[in-house]
Specification:
Elements (H helix, E strand, L loop, with lengths): L5 E5 L3 H11 L4 E5 L2 H10 L4 E5 L7 H11 L4 E6 L4 H11 L1 E6 L4 H31 L3 H15 L12 H13 L5 E4 L6 H10 L8 E5 L5 H9 L16 H4 L4 E5 L6 H13 L1 E2 L8 E2 L3 E6 L3 H6 L5 H7 L2 E4 L10 H16 L5 E2 L1 H9 L5 H15 L4 E2 L6 H4 L1 H5 L17 H19 L4 H8 L3 H11 L6
Parallel strand pairs: 1-2, 1-3, 3-4, 4-5, 6-11, 6-12, 7-8, 8-11, 13-14
Antiparallel strand pairs: 9-10
């Protein structure tokens, strides 16, 4: 069986270690260390793919520790978690410590998992690159053929057919429209809730366009402060800012003759928006610290899960940038609005997951499919993928039954009936265990409280007598997300 990537969690707080382990345990092996010395002992004896380090540790900062790690153990991909007050220190040490990305506290479980997945994939690519370099001279005559073959594989993998849907699905018309505009070199703005597949749609547009032979690069614009985001996108010159120890080629330059995908564009600051608008208008970038401009020919595909028109009206987003990016808007509908896609999508995800987990699974029971169809899927396709991965991991037989469902899916009919008034004010409880009834009641209270407070997490947490972290944990558990 193929071994899983190993993540080393370096944090002196046991609760923090356990919280991170719970998020990662289904996809990664984890090791923990409470100090730099413990971490170094593990690095000497274990194959570590990713290091996830807290910034504030006794004795030395996480950045200082990772600087030493870069010199002695350069292979693991380094991540750091920091409080907002530490951002300047992190920025100063990012390049010197070779930090791939950092997360701010309080971190979101989905975001943490997404970043660690990216780090593990980067480790794999780095190892592949080293192996390729060793074999490069031997394989030189066939190199171009290999690159062409990889491009053909990517074009097939990210074709519009990868967006699974039924013939009568709203996605069918959307894909048909996207295919028609793919060949024209105009910006595209993809909107939709988190987990609906905006990244897949962006890749399908690129690999169906005349730019398919060029690079496709992506950046989550909401994950980085302005200076780091500018450095990532536009590049920087050595010494441009504290921590810039080498020249850096930005993603716009890497995507020359290709496409760049700017995810979560609605989370950027007004200051950054001005700089991005200038790049889009002039077709030129100026790396930080450099006086010379460089022309780039890049197609921009942007995405957001927020209402940009409302952000423009509230003066949180520049109207000129909005109109520049939104030359052709595409809206990905949430999974709850296309129930006809659920059986096909579930079967596709099951096949892929079973193969990945090396398990022989033939399908779902009728009860499970009925629960899938009746559930609202606030986390959309990403939530369904996580649910199926959980079921496959726990399965002992070839058919996935209702006993494998998570609590929120186990009472899907009840969860979706919450918004419908019930006789004498009671929720349906037939066939539910006491634990399921209590969870259903708790979920309904949390949802009602969030609605009363306009989905403001801080105010709702105070009303419920919970901490923000505690409330976010329950939102994650029940898959609650603002849908109105």
């Amino acid at each position: 069986m193929k071994s899983r990537p190993c993540v080393l969690i370096v944090d002196d707080e046991v609760r923090s270690q356990e919280a991170i382990r719970r998020v990662l345990r289904e996809e990664f092996d984890t090791l923990t260390a409470a100090s730099a010395a413990d971490a170094e002992a593990l690095l000497n004896n274990e194959l570590i793919h990713v290091i996830l380090c807290d910034q504030r540790m006794p004795g030395e900062s996480g950045v200082d520790f990772l600087k030493r790690v870069r010199d002695c153990w350069p292979d693991p991909v380094r991540l750091i978690i920091s409080g907002y007050s530490d951002s300047e220190n992190i920025i100063a040490g990012v390049n010197e410590a070779g930090i791939y990305q950092y997360l701010t506290k309080p971190w979101e479980p989905d975001r943490l998992l997404e970043v660690v997945r990216g780090a593990a994939e980067l480790f794999r690519l780095q190892q592949d690159n080293q192996n390729v370099s060793v074999e490069l001279k031997r394989a030189a005559p066939a190199l171009q053929q290999t690159i062409a073959e990889k491009r053909r594989i990517l074009q097939h993998h990210y074709a519009f057919e990868s967006l699974i849907h039924a013939p009568d699905s709203p996605l069918a018309r959307l894909c048909s429209l996207a295919m028609r505009i793919a060949e024209y070199d105009i910006p595209v703005l993809i909107t939709g809730e988190s987990g609906t597949g905006k990244d897949l749609l962006a890749r399908a547009i690129h690999y169906s366009s005349p730019r398919r032979e060029g690079s496709f690069v992506a950046e989550n614009c909401g994950a980085l402060p302005d200076q780091l985001l500018e450095s990532e996108l536009f590049g920087c010159k050595k010494g441009a800012f504290t921590g810039a120890y080498e020249d850096r080629i930005g993603l716009f330059e890497q995507a020359d003759d290709g496409s760049i995908f700017l995810d979560e564009i609605g989370e950027t600051s007004l200051t950054f928006q001005v700089k991005l608008l200038r790049v889009l208008q002039e077709g030129e970038i100026r790396p930080l610290g450099n006086t010379r401009r460089r022309r780039v020919d890049v197609r921009v595909i942007a995405a957001t899960n927020c209402d940009l028109e409302a952000a423009v009206a509230a003066r949180r987003f520049r109207p000129d940038l909005y109109y520049r990016l939104g030359a052709f808007p595409l809206h990905l509908p949430p999974l709850r609005s296309r129930p006809m896609d659920i059986p096909l999508l579930a079967a596709h995800l099951l096949e892929r997951t079973a193969a990945s987990f090396h398990k022989r699974i033939t399908g779902f029971s009728e009860t499970v499919l009925a629960r899938f169809k009746s559930y609202a899927w606030p986390g959309n396709v990403r939530e369904m993928q996580n649910e199926i991965q959980r079921m496959v991991a726990l399965a002992d037989g070839p058919v996935l039954g209702p006993d494998l469902l998570s609590p929120r899916l186990g009472s899907a009919g009840v969860a979706n009936a919450m918004d419908t008034p019930q006789p004498s004010g009671q929720a349906p409880t037939d066939g539910m265990t006491l634990k399921e009834q209590v969870e259903s009641f708790e979920e309904r209270i949390i949802r009602d409280t969030l609605r009363r407070h306009g989905w403001n997490i801080s105010r709702a947490a105070r009303a419920l007598g919970l901490s923000r972290v505690g409330l976010r944990g329950k939102l994650q558990r029940y898959g609650l997300e603002r849908v109105n």
